[in-house]
Fold each of these.
Amino acid sequence: MAHLFFSSCTIVAFLLRISSLNLLYISRKYFSAIQCLYVM
């Protein structure tokens, strides 16, 4: 039971890390697009 809980925790942490990296990438791309529009 404890092993299952530990594995689920690691999976959740991994998914959170992936989602945070994706969010950072998307926000950076969005910010650069806004910057390009502002420069134009």
Amino acid sequence: TASEASPQSLPHTPTTPTAPITPVTQGPSVITTASMHNVGPIRRRYSDKYNVPISSADIAQNQEFYKNAEVRPPFTYASLIRQAILESPEKQLTLNEIYNWFTRMFAYFRRNAATWKNAV
């Protein structure tokens, strides 16, 4: 119908780039104590604050249990990844080495690979 707008009758806006309305200001590239004064208190995990590995007591204490029982361990992926890296001689691991550590240390991860690999 004549009352409907066709693509040819719609107004066209230019496609050339224009300057931003508000200039972008470059903030500090490094976070420093001075740049964080407005952030507020930061909470850290005890293990992060004091660089205490989680497995010293938690994983090692129940190591045989986790290796054999298909029970999901009560640790975050981040803490498990951290522990795997801390246990490696070079203190660095490839993603595949992290996967291998997960499956070597926990029976749960041997059976349920599809559910956890993307999260890691």
Amino acid sequence: WEKLYEIAPVIGRGLEYLHRGCNARILHFDIKPHNILLDEDFFSRNFGGVSHKSDVSSYGMMVLEMVRGRRNYSAERSHYSEIYFPRWAYQRLVTDEDLNIQCITTKEDEEIAKTMILVGLWCIQTDPSQRPTMSKAIEM
């Protein structure tokens, strides 16, 4: 409880900075425990920096979730339906296998889904410098 009591004001100061300390007021709209990044000692650290490429990655995950119709679960899950979708989709594209996604009923729909998967995968690359700009991503 003591650590939680120490962490809460730090999060609050971060939000206060977004609301009042920046040149342009920024509203987060998605504060939740999952979005608070702490290291193993429960300190906030620089986790690679935040940039416009962070938003590109989030956009890519959202596009992949749109294709799948649900969240992109972790690869550590044992149940087939909870396999990490980006990895599964990439393997399907590389081997040119059908996607076998329930709501895809035509070849045209499958091509659209494949394009969306490619965009999503391009956006979520581990190295931010390899991610496209948002302009490039929406051109596809």
Amino acid sequence: MDTSEEDRQLGELGYTQKLSRSVGGVSSFFLGFSVISATTAVFSGFGFGLSTAGPAFVWTFPLAVAVFFVWALIAADLVVKLPLAGYAYQWTSRLVSPNLGWFTGFAGAVGFISGFTGVAYVLSGYVGSLLGIEMSTSSQILTSMAVVLLCVLINVYGVRLATILNNIGVALELVVTLGATAFIAIVAFFVSNEHQGIGFLFSTGAAGDSSSPYVIVWLTASLGCIFGLLGVESAADVAEETKDARRTIPRTMFLALGVASAIEFFMYVVFLLVIKDPTTLSESASPISDLFAQQVSPWFSKFVIALALTNILVCVLASMLVATRLVYAMGRDNMLPGSHSLRRVSPTHKVPTTAVWVTGLVSLALLLSALASEQTFSYIVGTAALGFFGVYFLTTAGLLVANARKRIPQGPAGVFDLGRMRLPVYVLGMVVFGLVMSALLFLPDFRANAIVFAVTMGLAGLWWLVVLRGRIARAEAGPKYVLANVENHDPAAAPS
């Protein structure tokens, strides 16, 4: 589709094209893939799964893929109808109500910002491990802050630079991560001959002795695999910067999910089979690093970790990019405090500069909270999954209402469409997203995260009750405000 036609269609929704529509199919796929980040997922999820449910945790991974496939179906169906920055915020605001859109968008911002902040913190920990130094909390925070600031500067410069660097990082991930995983498998099976048999993948390890039924332990371990696929919908949030978004994004979304899932499962299986001492490794703080050190050498382990850091860095970069578009979209609709500034786009770089800086500053504030309490910080970043699944659940619930009211618009011919499968998919989504949300809210291991998330959403509720509800009722926020003000050409005249 010609970009001028996409600009015209954007205008029909109340916006003018201010962002740079420069993201092609490859960059769209790489963006979604890097937010999922197979390397980050496996490096952070492997130890949790192994220590929680033993090697058999790997068979929870297909369940995780199924959950996200349901969400990808829903998101792909919506992005062809409303290809707008802000993805689920826009979908729920326009198809149901801006009130629901507010809570959906806020939950998404919580998910992305706390998520990439946590990844930056993980990255700084690996830097210390790579350099062979034990980093203090303050040193790790300073390193994390430097990572966040670097990503802010790259994102401020423009989406083209961010996607180019992201593409390079993903290309390295595909080549190096897969290569290193295949290499350690060759060493274990054909050189040292020190590896586990296939039956090991079905063993429960020490988890079999748990006082809880193993099926509960096993399902708890599935959350580690679920965390590793968060953000599959990321490409939808940069729809206004994607060429031929209606056709491109559904393809790249499914491709990112498929490729990331295949790579993660391959890595999980290989890493389990090349374990020499299961008991020691399940207690390790850095099991992946130890695997490479035991099977090859400590130097090879450091080399792999060094390259993996680039993958983790682009995960932070891409996740921040997506988060800023959500903040920008909500500011553009006058939904946030300071919307007058958040909606501004740099005419030179075609980037929502203020939204980028504000997103970065929120992340830095979260990192500084670790100085007061590392435990509190871990609870804050632990809300990421709750934020994402809050979006999935609220969006799907809203879509059931919209579908009953026949408010789901028809997409153009020749693009992805759920058609008659829409209602069954929505019902299935409510079930699976509800189950995951329930686990994240009520399982003892995650209860503290749930409390932090509830308090955070409570603050969002307070803003809505005191200010935003009135704005929406007066058509001073949300889609009606946008259509009345035609992209806020006179933002000074509107309250913010």
